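Most newcomers find our protein records easier to grasp once they have seen one. A learned vocabulary of local backbone shapes supplies the integers on the structure line. Here is such a record, shown just as it appears in the course material:
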Amino acid sequence: MMNKIKNFDNQKIIFSLGIICFVIIAVGGWVKLQYGFNFIDEGYHMTKSWRLTVGDHLLDDQYTSILRSYTIFNSLIFRINPDITLLGFRQIQFILALIALCFFSTALYLVTKDYWYYPFIFSIFAFTGLDPVGMIPNLNYYTYPHLFIALSVSCFIIGLQLKNEFYRKLFFIITGFFLWGISISLLHLSVIIIFPPIFLLIKQKLNFTSIAFNFKDLLYILLPFMFCWIGFIFIYQNTFWDAVFNSINYFLSSENYSATSLVKFNWVPLAYTIIAAVILSCYFFAIKKLAFRILIALLSSLSFLVYIIIETSFLGLIEPYYRGWFDRPMWLSACLIAFSIIFGLDIIKKIQFKQNLTKIDELIIIILIPATILSIASTIFSGLGPLTVLHSSIPLVAAFSLYIIYNKKLVEKIYFSKLIILMFILIPFYYTTAWADWRYTYFDVIPEQMDQTITSGFGKGIKTNKFYARLYEWIESTSKKFSSSEDFMISYIVSPMTHMIAKRRPSVDDTYLDITISPEKIERYLNSMKSKERYPTIAYVFERMPIMFPGSLKSGKYGLPSKQIIYSRPSDNALLNYIKQNMVLTAEFRISDDHKIRFFVDKKKMHLLSKNIPKGSQILNQN
């Protein structure tokens, strides 16, 4: 009895200390949200969502929107708060991450009755939020599935534990809604709906003893998913099917999104995964075979070695993932992949030797089934490859931690002993992932070099570099002076955030206007623009994508992209020629003699506009 009381007291103490650490880390994560401005992908996510609130149609006015309809959720936020800022969106994402962690912790507690380890295992998300990749800390087609997979698994586990039939059914129904949320966020992730049937099949085959789940329960999950899709298709009818087929044809015919470029095996992450599997095998072997004091000494040395491996990309023997931008989070992803494989082999071994599965084994299987389905689908169809496993990492981290904590060798250990072992394993991966998330601001400078704060408009409160800050002011100034909020505009090339700065609707269906878009697609965009009479009043033409390539996350050096548009030369680019022929070059933002952003105004409306032309300043000249 005294041992139980002592153990319970230790659990409360450890949990309290963990909460303090978690809150400190979360404050750092909250502060991090204000750093970095992104003209390209984040601008794309925001513009696609915002335009739905100012009169655009989800499918008719956005060529590929059906594949990524997360914009519906973001548009609701814009409708509720029309004046919300970019920082506000990032903060909502962060708050939703904390809510998901609370739900998942509740679900785990109902099964294990332990709670001391939650703040520690989920501490990484207190800094990264729903985007452990460290790419875009916003609500988009990566972070919404991460949110919904965490919430759906939580509700499913809670439903399995409830005895009251009404509440049990209610949680299964909610699980179905969250699974639909995953599929509407990114269409190919609809494969997640096979999770409940697969679980029912595995449960029956493996004869789970601690869980009751039958075909009737399965229907309570499947029906909300089906009804939501039936309702969605009924609303959009033939427009839905046209959008699906046209979008699929678009991506398959695009050089960047073709089947051969996406559905292919990437050998580099395999090296990460093999090394991670060896590392985890060493950890698990040591836990199983060594006495506690020797184990602690070995784990401390091994953890330092893992840190060196991550920091040096295995002493320089492995190619840094994505130019070194994502090599550190790739190690965490590889760790979770390796764990899933090791656990799967462990279960196969137990089945082969006719060993009974424990309650924790069953819980981990419940968690891994949907996380694995989502990870595989994301990996196959994303250019980020296996790095997207991190967008299922809330459940994966929980499963990984359960496997360690409830190891047969450790199950009788006091909580402090388990905590020490757990931290030695997690800290190298967590620290390096958080460090990379802090330093990589997705094509902005590192936070230490951000000496400007945007003070108005959609970007208010964001810290960035001088170039972005003054360019932001110039776009805001020219758009207000030469157009009104009802007007349309074009921003070319790859600069969709310009629409959010100017708060002007896009003239063309797509806002991610890359130089590699085929002439046929540009012609389609222009024809659609003319048929809908969405003629641009203003246009911005960027000679180079507005990005800063990180050369080294440690040194903070960066480079600018090469020139993609040579304005003075004749071009067969129909979009650029339309701008030249129908609009007047009105102002230039000069970065250097060889780097300018040009501003155009429609010829027919030029006589109604002011003759005062804002001038750009030379504020950046760095290679």
About this structure: Confidence is low (pLDDT under 50) at residues 617-623. The beta strands are 452-453, 463-464, 488-492, 505-506, 536-542, 549-550, 558-559, 583-592, 595-602. The radius of gyration is 26 Å.
